[in-house]
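haha ok so turns out i had the wrong file open the whole time. this is the CORRECT one, sorry everyone. sequence first:
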Amino acid sequence: MSLSRNQLKLITSLQQKKYRNIHNLFIAEGTKVVNELLNSNFELEQLFCVNTSAYETNEKVTQITEDELKKVSSLKTPNNVLGLFKIPVEEELITNGFVLALDEINDPGNLGTIIRLCDWFGVDQLICATNTVDCYNSKVVQASMGSLTRVSIVYTNLSTYLQNTSLPKYASLMEGENVYKSELPKNAILVMGNEANGISNSILKLLTNSVSIPRFGNSQQTESLNVATATAILLSEFKR
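then structure:
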């Protein structure tokens, strides 16, 4: 059995958020990511495999050729299996504990890495402003390496969310308080901003505290850290 014209059209369309929302489906590629999703609560729609031996007991498997996989894959080197999974219903917003919030993160690789960091550091929920890249973008799914299955991700109006919570709110800023000298609360909201412009002014005015990662280099000329790298350092300190 091979890819039908309709299947080819569907898979190709799911590279766009508009069609992911219409069909309520997203793409996952590669053995590790697909297996993580298969072993989670995510519901499988269809699997497409070059070699079906690892999935032969699954009734939703379609065997395809390497050339067909290349046509629908977003990877430079397609990895045997591509799965279509249903987008789950978002969970309710958490209003206590420790929360990470993202304001207009645009790069799929950064978001995928941040999802992995949440998984690593035990951050149960990631709050994303509605202008943040879609977590079901295929590049985000790939970069998350399966952590998407263990982190609750909610898109919401970030201003409204911040105004309706009593948790202390921390901004990650270049000119903030040295994070290594700060007494950080166990329960708080940490907001990370856009890769180029940082946290937007409308969000910044709602935040009561700020932290920064000091530069130790002699030249002191490095402009900034990648947002995912900065997130890793700050989560380590908040969770220490």
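The radius of gyration is 20 Å.
again sry for the mixup
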